[in-house]
Amino acid sequence: MRIDIITVVPDLLKSPFEASIMQRSIAKGLVEVNFHNLRDYSTNAYKQVDDYQFGGGAGMVMMIEPIDKCISELKSQRDYDEVIYMTPDGETLNQKIANQISLQGNIIILCGHYKGVDQRVRDQFITREISIGDYVLSGGELGALILCDAVIRLIPGVLGNETSALTDSFQDNLLAPPVYTRPAEYKGWKVPEILTSGNTPKIEAWREDEAYKRTLERRPDLIKNQS
């Protein structure tokens, strides 16, 4: 997968891709991530990429011209499956969306900033708008990082255990069950005996039951959505 991220603050994005799972995915050649500074596409002497709103109002708006130049240049080099805009009024990111995007080959992620982007950008270039929650951040960069992390870990070969991502919370509209590791007893606190029994069918049945109970307790809306 190739991910091209358009931003006014590329330095804010780079560090997370230099560590842990995202770094290893890049090192393995499973993912290619490129950062594009929008100011490089400005024709303004001061590298300006924002301006006042038509009609008045507080807050600056990202201009269409530098965004058009950047996206058009990228599209002239390859085809893209999605051009995603990170925005508070987009569809809320969930596991289903992450699964869908992980199957794509090339994507562009546009990070909003200031008061947002000129609506014509959204009308002409954007294929999908995604939010990470009902709150507003200073820009779309942190949202883009969350989207990338959620997507990259699903790509085959990224995680050491291929089945790990398939048992995450939300994959089957249930939260993940409790998990334990060594020691089996600590300060009198014991791991459920079923997990050390070696009886795989019973262990799986226990996990399914615990996942359902946890979901019913914490996120009953997920169970309702299945019916």
From TrEMBL:
It is found in: Cytoplasm. It comes from the Bacteria. One of its GO terms (biological process) is methylation. Keywords: Cytoplasm, Methyltransferase, S-adenosyl-L-methionine, Transferase, tRNA processing. Its EC number is 2.1.1.228. Residues 1-225 form the tRNA methyltransferase TRMD/TRM10-type domain. S-adenosyl-L-methionine binds at residues 112, 132-137. Pfam families: tRNA_m1G_MT. It catalyses: guanosine(37) in tRNA + S-adenosyl-L-methionine = N(1)-methylguanosine(37) in tRNA + S-adenosyl-L-homocysteine + H(+). One of its GO terms (molecular function) is tRNA (guanine(37)-N1)-methyltransferase activity. Belongs to the RNA methyltransferase TrmD family. Homodimer. Specifically methylates guanosine-37 in various tRNAs. This is tRNA (guanine-N(1)-)-methyltransferase. The gene is trmD.
